[in-house]
Design brief:
Layout: H1 3-8, H2 24-31, H3 38-47, E1 50-55, E2 58-63, H4 66-74, E3 80-82, H5 86-92, H6 102-117, H7 119-138, E4 150-153, H8 154-171, H9 177-191, H10 204-219, H11 224-238, H12 240-254, H13 256-274, H14 283-287, H15 290-303, E5 308-313, E6 317-319, E7 322-324, E8 329-333, H16 334-338, H17 381-398, E9 399-403, E10 408-409, E11 415-416, E12 421-426
Parallel strand pairs: 2-8
Antiparallel strand pairs: 1-2, 3-5, 4-12, 5-8, 6-7, 9-12, 10-11
Length: 429
């Protein structure tokens, strides 16, 4: 880039905060409020849609601009490479698919995607998820003849469902001691993904690294590439999908009109299938429920379980009038785009009908990116939607519930403060 051109551009304004800590404390504090996006909104109002800061031990440029994010997501290999906080890179390792780059990543990504799209896989996984969800939900009410309601914690139950499904698909591990042991190890591992990069004994990162090392030794899995990426593909089983399930239940509990519409649509599908007892619901059946898919889209938009992606610039690059210098990290903020009034009317309102209106086309646009975008678009996005659709179908057609008051916590990952306790009874009761 010529000096004259560089002079016309500007490095984004901002504040790097304190040494080492940067603005991490403010970032974390906002994660414990009802509006975690306020960290981004405050700096956006001061410095513009693209600004610089320092969080989790990393000086970064943050983009809250959908057009800038699109460029970051699409420029891969020769311009941007993955760059995540030190806690994530140390835990996932150098062979992680998150850190792969170039043709090798493209090949691995394509292999995973093609496997998930095969008709045989779709048929098998639909049947397996269907069975697993029904059995899990049946355990919510161990004595259906009782007239009182059963208390369950949705967050815990959703994690059991999705973890069991993914571990069976990826590792052929059935329910039992091995699954329980794996779940305990993985719980410790996942806690260290987002934390300050300090490895002293007693810190979260130290404990998670130690747990990860012990788990691999116990299982004698010496192939870093295989173990690392199996673990990485298991992360949705612990975080993304079950939290989407949990938050869908919360949003439906808070919006009875939406719940009624969702129940009517799924009751109609259930009625159609009951007329032919030999026919089970298929992948296409679940994915073709329009309002159910709208509820899923709206849940993903508001939940922001994946709030952004990290990239590092391999060279100076101009994007929308901003100069991103070589070796600087960029955080493409999804939550800022999903919660911006310029993109969604009344963005804090849970409104599945918005997807039938002017925003309908945004399911595949750069202002709706719950699964990322570009060459690194999550290959399991349809599988995630399928799991959510199956869960919602059986939940709303067989059960009624009353949710207790609970709050969403957004750091270190999205969670319910009380794991969303609900009192459940069967519809037949």
């Amino acid at each position: 880039m010529t000096k004259r051109k560089e002079a016309r551009l500007r490095i984004p304004k901002g504040n790097l905060g304190w040494p080492l800590l940067g603005e991490t404390i403010d970032f974390i504090a906002c994660g414990y409020t009802s509006r975690p996006v306020s960290f981004m909104e405050k700096r956006r109002s001061l410095y513009g849609k693209v600004f610089k800061t320092n969080i989790l031990g990393t000086p970064i440029i943050v983009s809250t601009d959908a057009d800038v994010n699109k460029v970051v997501l699409q420029n891969h290999g020769n311009t941007f490479v993955p760059a995540y906080p030190k806690s994530i890179t140390e835990l996932l390792g150098q062979h992680s698919i998150l850190q792969m780059n170039g043709s090798f990543h493209k090949r691995v990504h394509a292999l995973i995607g093609s496997f998930l799209r095969t008709p045989h896989f779709k048929s098998q996984i639909t049947s397996h998820i269907d069975t697993s969800v029904q059995l899990s939900l049946a355990r919510w009410i161990p004595h259906p003849d009782r007239h009182h309601m059963q208390l369950v914690y949705v967050q815990d139950e959703a994690q059991k469902i999705t973890f069991e499904v993914l571990v069976k698909v990826l590792m052929s591990v059935e329910p039992g001691e091995d699954l329980d042991s794996l779940k305990r190890d993985f719980d410790e591992f996942i806690k260290g993904l987002i934390c300050l990069p300090i490895k002293f004994p007693g810190t979260r990162l130290y404990k998670s690294l130690k747990e990860s090392s012990e788990a691999n030794e116990k299982r004698r899995l010496s192939l870093d590439f295989i173990t690392g990426n199996i673990i990485e593909m298991m992360i949705p089983g612990e975080e993304t999908v079950p939290m989407a399930m949990t938050l869908a239940v919360k949003f439906l509990s808070d919006n009875p009109v939406v719940l009624q519409k969702l129940r009517e649509e799924n009751m109609e599908l259930k009625k159609q299938k009951s007329n032919d007892s030999s026919t089970n619901c298929t992948w296409t059946d679940y994915m073709s429920l329009p309002f159910t898919q709208n509820v899923i889209s709206e849940t993903l938009r508001i939940a922001n379980i994946i709030n952004g992606v990290w990239r590092r610039a391999l060279k100076d690059i101009e994007i929308e009038g901003y100069l991103i210098p070589k070796d600087w990290c960029v955080l493409a903020s999804f939550i800022s785009v999903h919660m911006a009034e310029e993109n969604y009317q009344n963005p804090c309102q849970f409104d599945p009908w918005r997807w039938e209106k002017t925003e309908a086309s945004t399911v595949n646009s750069n202002i709706f990116t719950p699964f990322g975008g570009g060459q690194r678009l999550c290959p399991g996005l349809e599988l995630s939607r399928l799991e959510l659709a199956i869960f919602l179908h059986h939940l709303v057609t067989k059960y009624r519930w009353i949710a207790e008051k609970d709050e969403i916590v957004h750091f270190p990952t999205v969670k319910m403060k009380r794991k969303l306790p609900i009192s459940v009874t069967s519809i037949s009761t």
